[in-house]
Design brief:
The protein has 705 residues and is of the alpha/beta class. The chain is built from 29 helices and 23 strands. Strand 14, helix 23 and strand 15 form a beta-alpha-beta unit.
Amino acid sequence: MNTFDHTQSGQDEADPITGHPELAAEQAHVDLAHSCLEAARDRALSLTRMVEVGRGGTNQARFEREAIIDQVAARLDHLDLGDAALVFGRIDQEPELGGGVFHVGRVGVWDADQEPVVVDWRAPIAEAFYRATGLEPMGLQRRRHLVCRGRTVVGLEDELFGDLERFRDGDRLKGEGALIAALEMARTGRLGDIIGTIQVEQDKIIRAPLAGVQVVQGGPGTGKTVVALHRAAYLLYTHRFPLEGQGVLVVGPNRLFLAYIEQVLPSLGEAGVTLATLGDVVGGVRIDDRREEKEMGRLKGDLRMVRFISRAVRTRQRPLRADLRIGHGLQWLTLSVEESSRIVTEARRRFRTHNAARRFVEAEFYGALVASSRGDLDPEAVRERLRGEMAVREALEWMWPVLTPAQMLNDLFGSRALIRAADRSLDEDQVEALFRPRQVSGDDVYWTASDAPLLDEARAALGARPGRKEEDVVRTYGHIVVDEVQDLSPMDLRMLERRSLNGSMTVVGDIAQATGSWAHDDWEEILTHLPDRKPPVRHELTVGYRIPGPLMDLAARVLALAAPDLAPPRSVRGDGCPPRVVELTGAGAESLDGLGDVVRAEMDAVGAGNVAVIAADNQAADVEAALERAGVAFGRPTRRGLDAPVAVVPVGLVKGLEVDATVVVEPARILRDHAQGERALYVALTRATRRVALAHSEPLPEVLL
């Protein structure tokens, strides 16, 4: 239970946020902290001047200089906070613990005597700032929240611990005033951090042990994404060795989402984390964010594709169809079909991956040609002389070609016969759906997100090409964070497990928002495909911070249809604007002509905030056309799409984003045209922090009436 006193004892007249009597003293400390931060930057820069290398410098000196410059660059990145507040809190300890006073901030800062001016939010001593409650004060007398705008302290809020009866107020959150102030700030098109307002249930997840899989179920607005990102920053700080070398990977559902979150980690003092979609993780191919339609998406995401890819690779390991006969000097060298079959069989037995066997096949190939000669020939000399012969090259490419994943899948999907050979259980409709005309080169193909795990499975089966190991090796990571995991197929999850170095992962999602081809109904379906070196630890975020009560009440009615077994988050924001329903009067092609007025009204209501216009995927183009006719400027769902005050976002891409206001267009169509219509509508209704408008010409679904 939390205890509250939003004023200093004996100073009851002070405003708890902006009129605190110690505001000037805290401003002085923040000024000192920034002065020390600047001094730390200057010290880091001075290191580069200590290792200047003249024209006669040695290679060792140059190497040392480059190493130091890299370290300085990393340190300067760590100290660069931009416009983010450096200090956001303070804790005062009980006398029994030494009575220390510590300011908590984004990075640790020390003065000239190496005394702490600001302690890093991830440091063990800062844990009490997030965890202390009235029942467990963790040795604190007071916790103070500083509301800062850049370097300026604009308000303070205190919580005192002690007499539980005096301060008993079990329903309120810690730092509620600071929290609500942060929640009500206008959105910018980028996700903000919650570093100064982390709540107890969130902090337990952030500071959970590194080993094993941490599972986080959280409804809309519970902060699961920012909790996952704060956990990545915390783990890198706490386990700098070995994670700095092993790497931390954060996987999001699409590039729009990555653009939305990309500023959070640098603002927390960590810039060395890799942000990627599943397509980015594959590497070496061009993959967009498109997902296949439901049936094809389910087929490509099914674990039967493991055998499909394995057999497809095996079909490229073939004995010759006829004996090879090639001239060498005054004699003929031959390779029989039977001997080529022996070579292929032996290569399959000896090597786990396809490409790794190529050199063995070549050696056996030329050895068999030499064995067929009438004299004592040198195999290496024969190889050098014949390797350029077209007949030899064609024979080797037939028997055992060196392949990239893109080349193999381009060939595979370009031949109905190869598709059938890889999986005899596929029906004709499935074969036809997988077939697509073969491109001249696999590098010319634009793959879909559903193809990503197939390309990765092919990479695992093919292995590195001879002499290209560094380029083809699968990168692994010491910790992997996965957001929106509820939509990932078994093949997607297998791909991520392959990149886990030690089974350490944090996966976050909401079963109620599962809308993809592989929408899972429970966490067991997901955990089956993740590392199991240790039993998974499950967490649930139950408090909604983003969505006002009236909007959550509306979404909860849809949740009852989408996932009746799940309870909606408890909103901390009981008040707020009720949802607005606007009936569009047009018909046919003009049914959206009134949409521009609806969007303008929402823009006026949120001022400097942003508005997302959300529609069914197959209606997004019509929505854009209607706004263009109305003269409303808007962005599209690209990496910079949410920088615009208004963005048109198909419901399939809106998951994980938050904006000030949403205009949900034709809710009935979202329900009707999406495979998981109830869940898609639930997602659409839970993106706004302030306002929701329902714009429709079709009758509203009964659940929204």
